[in-house]
Description:
- There is one protein chain.
- Helices cover 53% and strands 17% of the residues.
- It is of the alpha+beta class.
- The protein folds into 2 domains: 1-43; 44-110.
Amino acid sequence: MGDSKRIETRLGSVEAHSVDIRETAENNKTKCSDLESRLGKLEDRVSNWEVEESSVDESIQRQKQDHEFTVKLFTEVLGVEIGRNSIAKVLMLGKREAGTKNPRPILVGLESLCID
């Protein structure tokens, strides 16, 4: 009877420890997933410096032109086939100076590192 009781106690201890291990593993999976997501956000951005400013005053038109410029940059200059839907966002960085074509950096956010 004593051996049976000790075995049950040890089994209970092992079961409790295995629950702790499972919880730790799940927490680590979550942390890894979060880190991969954050790393992916960094990896799927491309910046290109010294892009001439659009002369159009309307913001939506400038955004369309920046998007079209980016598609041409990938396809014609870099030789990479890229669809319009592969580009998540295009941002001109810095303050726009009205009435000038001063170049500004452009930041391109891609939907995925795997381009169409």
